[in-house]
């Protein structure tokens, strides 16, 4: 579908890509990963035709439709939400306009027997068929379904797009791309402006979509749930695996270990051979052997070990000064913007050392309450900040507030005081700004690099209560893990506004859900909260589908009790059959896994022998076994999940 051949991208003598080649096939679900600045967004722009490479080609069939969502875009503010989204159907709308025009012409003509009249009838028929084929009759239903899935309510449809924040306008652009149903989706951080529910909706949409998907995301759970192939960009090269992100990490580690083992064995062989040649070079009796081994070295296909980008964020928050037991307390707190009430009668307590998350749909007041706690917004009701509480704030737009004309070094030098001034370069190095990077202007930094710079500014403040509003947007996966670990080790209090499930998992022990102007506390982690939410939504669904409370309805429901019992028996019988079948499948898969792992272990021993490295077939067989093991593991996972799901249903 899209072919990339020997792609080279250079910036001022620096090669971002060095001869990269790969193919995007129909139904591929590709996740582009790599550290900030590796070139993920640049590669998407090239695939979308928005940027030309320095060398190489990107080609695709002429009729290939591409839907590209960049991280930042200029959006139109002159229409309502519904009308702006409707522009995604330009082809359908133009068809409809032409059909209406021709129908009007047919209605006003009377030359029913003429050739031109018949041509007109045929043209309208063809256009109607086309209109039905491209989904013209269901256009408004699709718009409504997509907008609601992305978090809009029906009352929002008639509002002007100018009334919405940048994040919500990005959702409108995403809705337009989804509705155009391109052959290839190119999505750059599509989850950055989505709440958890909208992310889950988008996951389902993309997972079931019939075209190809290439996306950049730092949301590990989103990548795992959507992608089936991972391309990592590192040091100008790519590493391509047919696996989701988590499985890719395992395969990449195995590949590197195998590569290193083969490299060490070959280096040992080369060293021993060179020693033999040097030792017997001038002995006539060994001349033939020396010549043979010299030729062998010349023909030897040298194994190269892939360079590995080990740069990583090294964050450690300074010790927090001790605060009072109660860090922040709200009583009957409310907040309105004019006539728009956002929060109503909120009660909330955050205690020292707690790590809490604010979650919920965008626009429900999460950031508003965070800013109220910071003292930035007026409100009604009572807000109490505890004794000796020093607050540090990291906002979504913190990176945009940096002075673009300053260098990285100048930005930190302006705020550093005391002994910190002597360690500025060390601090910058810990945040992956080393060497010439510190002299870069802020305006040339990537989104992730700006976020890291803003994070340094936060860390230089002596605080004991961190309020972080979407801190992971634009951070790569490794940097997010480092930030998460640093926050977990931090001995102060943390409040995080975030939609990133993987980031919150294992970090927070209390979740506050924002919904309908209220806040509800959920003790436990983020996945405990999500599991409860699913159970609650199922209960609501059951309540909605129950018949009315009138006597007639009760009689109808109660009548077929005997049939229900019989059906229940048949269902039990079928479930038992499936459980038995799956038990055998799981057992067979486990036997196959054990067999393949034994074969791989045997080959590992063989590959440790330097003499075996000259046999190319051993590496081919080794790779085949690895691929076979991966397939069997996937089957075992599917069988196990299905088996466990049926066991949960079996309550008798």
From TrEMBL:
Transferase keyword on record: no
ATP-binding in keyword set: yes
Residue ranges of domain ABC transporter in the record: 2-260, 328-541
Coiled-coil spans in chain: 572-642
Keywords: ATP-binding, Coiled coil, Nucleotide-binding, Repeat
Listed InterPro entries: AAA+_ATPase, ABC_tran_Xtn, ABC_transporter-like_ATP-bd, ABC_transporter-like_CS, ABCF_ATPase, P-loop_NTPase, Val-tRNA_synth_C_sf
CDD domains given in the database record: ABCF_EF-3
GO terms for MF: ATP binding; ATP hydrolysis activity
Regions that span the bilayer: none
Family stated for the protein in its record: Belongs to the ABC transporter superfamily. ABCF family. YbiT subfamily.
Name of protein: Probable ATP-binding protein YbiT
Organism: Mangrovibacterium marinum
Lineage: Bacteria, Pseudomonadati, Bacteroidota, Bacteroidia, Marinilabiliales
